[in-house]
Specification:
Blueprint lengths: L7 H18 L4 H49 L18
Helix pairs in contact: 1-2
Length: 96
């Protein structure tokens, strides 16, 4: 029923980028070859930032789900309450 997302394109893109960086590492221009290390560090930073954002998003989603459940429970209890917030008095069958 549930399938894993296909990351084939992303993996091909990553390999292509790494191959290009490997080629640029041997470039005669020092600025280009020196920038490869910086580019790799920046890509690693971005990957870590994505993971951090996903974890933060999951935490927020879990919290919102918890709040939603608490609101539903409270609404269910409010149906039993009178307009002033007090619980309705029980009526015994003998009083009817």
């Amino acid at each position: 029923m549930f399938t894993q997302p296909d990351h084939t394109y992303r993996e091909i893109q990553e390999r292509s980028f790494q191959q290009w960086l490997n080629e640029m590492e041997h470039h005669s221009d020092l600025a280009v070859s020196g920038g490869v290390r910086l580019a790799r560090e920046y890509v690693q930073y971005l990957k870590e930032e994505i993971k951090r954002q996903e974890a933060s998003n999951q935490l927020k989603a879990d919290y919102m789900k918890k709040l939603k459940n608490e609101i539903k429970e409270k609404e269910g209890r409010d149906d039993l309450c009178q307009s002033d917030g007090s619980l309705p008095q029980r009526i015994h069958l003998s009083e009817i």
